[in-house]
Write a structure and sequence with these properties.
The chain contains 11 helices and 9 strands. It is an alpha/beta fold. Helix 7 links the parallel strand 6 and strand 7. It starts with a helix and ends with a helix. Bound molecules: guanosine-5'-monophosphate (2 copies), manganese (II) ion and sodium ion. The site of manganese (II) ion has 4 residues, from loops. Keywords: Membrane, Transmembrane, Transmembrane helix. It comes from Photobacterium angustum. This is EAL domain-containing protein.
Length: about 240
Amino acid sequence: YCKKIWVRVCIKRNIIRPYLQPIVNNEGNIIGAEVLARWITKKGQVLPPHVFIPYIESKHLTSLLTCSLMTQVYQSQLMVVSKHLKLSFNLTERCLFDESIYKASLLLAPKFELVLEFTESAPFSNAHVKARMEKFHQNGMFFALDDYGTGYSAPYYLTDYDFDYLKIDRCFIEQIEHNPKSIHVVESVVRLAQKLQLSVISEGVETEKQKQMLDQWGIKQYQGYYFYKPMSVESFMDIYRSH
Ligand code: G
Ligand code: G
Ligand code: MN
Ligand code: NA
């Protein structure tokens, strides 16, 4: 119980910060970023999400965290970038119904191409979700199905829900240089996305060869260590300005 209060206080004090992993186009130019949560310790250590997200989710503090990340972005230097950047956040189904997240999204949507990413471990439930997505869509926001191809993100969601982006999970990209089977999987995902008029973002691009192969299949947006690792907003601004 005490730990829950303590984590809540940490979130309120912005101990968990928005890190940004750039999203790039074919030329390698930055067109946006995915916001990834990082816990910054007193000693300045940067803790990755798997250390704290499961606890935060188990205590139903995910919406509070997401709202905090959105608010921190809204108060950051990112707001002065003149270009219309794509900015994506990881949400859970519950976040979709949280009014404070809705309000924070309304603040960000005029400035960015705001993309809300979902990876569903529990199946998306019902008509309420569809209606809610529709409301976000009407306000100029977009949806991405994250980690596509893994157990958590099935094709079923593509037929039943109105997604705009599909993010191919990095486990497929990891294999394309060596495993012909994964080549077929990625190619078929790209074709499927084109037919459904979804934009594809390829995650986890780590090599030049992977990027070339993905280029050939018509992928136009990338994320991965080959381009950039997740970084603080300050570092992102430095890199962005120097381009
Ligand atoms: O950032 P990587 O650097 O380690 O992220 C690991 C996992 O944590 C990813 O699957 C990502 O979706 C999840 N994650 C990162 N930031 C957030 C966040 O703000 N909210 C939620 N719900 N998940 C996040
Ligand atoms: O939300 P999602 O699960 O897609 O979060 C993206 C995760 O992938 C984050 O943990 C991020 O740090 C990680 N990531 C991004 N690019 C790469 C990459 O090129 N290689 C690896 N191994 N991980 C990556
Ligand atoms: Mn994601
Ligand atoms: Na992913």
